[in-house]
Every structure is written in structure tokens, then in C-alpha cells.
């Protein structure tokens, strides 16, 4: 695993063409892995729930074509077999305390991207990571993605202090998801750069070829062009941080 990891891709895999265009663009921008949801735990049951197994198949094809690892969210331990070709299994914020899932992931040899629940403390996040480690799996990446506060101008409130706090307490990598924290694409850049300046070991960013038409989280998605500019600046900030 590299010192700094940049992950980008759509919130949800929607079609072969959508995924292909995005992969091509984010690869050009220099990402280390592609993200894409196939099983989406949505707040409303009437919202797009993801393509399911078909989405995983499209991700596998993209992985082979672009020679990049893939990241996708697993929502239940019964799906582990189905996620065989996925390199980094994401545990979403809503599942951070799904202890049976965490225990089952602890017995795999996959990298796990554990996102902080929006109502959970750093302590609780570290305890959830412990559930995975207890099973023998130490390949864990933690992710700060914003917590719920009284502020409503952003979707969540990015807790930048979680980065130095977690780093002072573990050796695990901590990355930041500026997209879900911001909820609006116009704020993603500031949060992303601030996260790198605060010592984040990487970022996971939502990107869409046509944000306005996205089936999920379009408001917070960067266009491919916006992402490529951001990636350039993120790498510059990462290099600057090495001097400190
Ligand atoms: C996502 O990554 O698309 C997602 C649903 O994130 P979170 O679990 O942080 O809400
Ligand atoms: Mn999303």
C-alpha cells in the first residue's frame, strides 16, 4: 500500500458506458483505485439501490481494462464470496457498527475501508476497527466522512481533527471523503486540500461524467474535468506536506 492513496469514481455504478468514461478520466488524473457502489444502502427505499451483482461485474471488467484496484461497499457478510474480485471492501458509515459484518471481514485477507458513522465518536470507530483486527485482518484503512452537527449548509460536518487524533492513537491509514461531508460539489476542493494539509493518508472522491444526471449523490459529484484539476492540486499539497 502506497503512503498516499487517491481513490475516485462514481457513487454508484450505473452502466458500462458511465463507468468506462469515468475510469478513463480518473486514471488519467493519476488515481490509485476506482470506487463504485453496487449495493447502495439508501435512506429511502424508493431511491436507486444500485445495480447489485451486475455492478460488481462491471467493476471487475473495469479493473481488468484499466489495471486499477477497485473499491466497493459491502453491506452484508453473506456477500463476501460475491466480492472476491473487489480489492478494497468498503464498510459504509451506516454499517460501521454492524459487528457481525466486521467480524466476518476480520477473517478475510482483503483490505477493508472502514468509514466513520456520522453519529460515532473516534473511539467507537477504533473499536469497530478492533473487531476486524481481532479476526486476524490488519489491512484496515479508516475514513473520516463527516459527522452530523447542527450545521445544515453542508451535508455533514467534516471532522478534520479526527485525522491527527486517530494518527496519534493508531498506525492505521486515515483517509478522508470530502464528497459526502460537503454534499455539494463546490465545497469538495477546499475540504479535500484541507484534509491533506491535516495529514490525511489519502482521499476518496465522488466523480461523475454527468453529475446532473447521476442516479445517486449527483450534487456532490465532481465532473471529470473538475476532478483532474483537483487531483493535480492534491498531489502538490501532498508533496508540500512531505517537507514538513
Ligand atoms: C458512499 O461512499 O457512497 C457512501 C454511501 O458513503 P457513506 O457510507 O460514508 O455515507
Ligand atoms: Mn455516495
Number of helices: 8
Q: Roughly how much helix do the residues carry, as a percent range?
A: 25-40%
Rg on CA atoms, Å? 16 Å
Identify the overall geometry.
globular
- Could you say which structural class the secondary elements and strand pairing correspond to? alpha/beta
| Beta fraction | 5-15%
| Average pLDDT score | 97
What's the β-strand tally? Answer: 8
Ligands, deduplicated: phosphoenolpyruvate, manganese (II) ion
Largest sheet: 8 strands, parallel
Distance between the termini: 22 Å
Describe this structure in words.
The protein has 244 residues and is of the alpha/beta class. Helices cover 38% and strands 14% of the residues. It has helices at residues 16-28, 53-66, 99-106, 122-134, 162-169, 178-182, 185-197, 224-242; strands at 5-9, 33-35, 70-73, 88-91, 111-115, 140-144, 173-176, 202-206. An eight-stranded parallel sheet has the order 7-6-5-4-3-2-1-8. α3 packs across α4 (122-134). The mean pLDDT is 97. Bound molecules: phosphoenolpyruvate and manganese (II) ion. Phosphoenolpyruvate is lined by residues 11, 37, 92-94, 115, 145, 177, 180. Residues 11, 180, 206, 216-217 line the site of manganese (II) ion.
